[in-house]
Amino acid sequence: MDLEGSCHGGGGPPEVQRTPAWLETTYGEGPTCFYCHVQIPSTFHHLLPPQLKSEIKGLTDTWEEEVNMTSRLACLITLEQKHDGMVVFVPDAPPVNVL
Known about the structure:
Blueprint: E1 15-19, E2 22-25, E3 37-39, H1 53-63, E4 71-73
Antiparallel strand pairs: 1-2, 3-4
């Protein structure tokens, strides 16, 4: 699904939580624009990769009051068979300043 975002999906995540004690640095770009904000039903949260601090901060800085406990960046989620049936909410993008 195409979502608005100037980074066109960003790069791979800069870190991947492999186990509770192991956070692997992957040297990916990570998200750069934070416009692919989606809200995932809580029943699917256990099937998603853990949120990175940079994802939470970027979402909060960009979307402010529209961010909630179900907010995620779509560019950091790779859909798999286990996500079958998941329905997500895609909020309207925040206004963009045009010079």
